[in-house]
Amino acid sequence: MTRPLIAILRGITPPEAEAHAEALIAAGITTLEVPLNSPDPWDSIARLLKRFGGDARIGAGTVLTPGQVDLLAGMGAHLVVSPNADPAVIRATRAAGMDSWPGVMTPTECFAALAAGATGLKLFPAGLLGPAGLAAIRAVLPPEVPVYAVGGAGAANFAEWRRAGADGFGIGTALYRPGQSVADTRAAAAAIVSAWDEAA
């Protein structure tokens, strides 16, 4: 079962990337992003694509330039996630056939991102707006546009965010913190998946 959850593996290193990814995928989280401000992110992404590219959607986060998009496209990555809504990055991502998830916070940013071709919207940092803020923005967005809440959304409040109009979530430290064991990742993933299934 594919769930609308993106695992944000900020800080992961290449030697540990595959083991943690394997735990996440086994738990049912099959979309993985390695932020580009992690140690040796290109190596980690290459390893994950080679091993899990047929079983999971793998890409990068904190993507800020079209040049980075080009590198990801050349590697065969599936998605590009950004903290901001840069039309040039969005257009390059979509032209390369990858999913584009730009970070947005205002209606202006939402509609600008959609006009540039964004696959979906990453409400970030979601905790600053809260579910009420999302509900207000959601009221003016096309209903078919997927919106993921990132930053401030987690297992404890999935249901509240879902009622406000969140279609999915990006999950960072609740799933992975640098240096944690694979067992901890496995347990965190099981808890997140269980909470999602209950909220959905």
TrEMBL record:
Pathway(s) it belongs to: Carbohydrate acid metabolism
Key words, A-Z: Carbohydrate metabolism, Lyase
EC number: 4.1.2.21
Keyword Lyase attributed: yes
Quaternary state and interactors: Homotrimer.
MF terms in GO: 2-dehydro-3-deoxy-6-phosphogalactonate aldolase activity
Similarity remark: Belongs to the KHG/KDPG aldolase family.
Domain of life: Bacteria
InterPro entries noted in UniProt: Aldlse_KDPG_KHG (IPR000887), Aldolase_TIM (IPR013785), KDPG/KHG_AS_2 (IPR031338)
Keyword Lyase: yes
Pfam families membership: Aldolase
Source organism per UniProt: Paracoccus sphaerophysae
Gene3D superfamilies linked to this entry: Aldolase class I (3.20.20.70)
PROSITE patterns attached to this UniProt entry: ALDOLASE_KDPG_KHG_2
Record-given protein name: 2-dehydro-3-deoxy-6-phosphogalactonate aldolase
Top EC class for this record: lyase
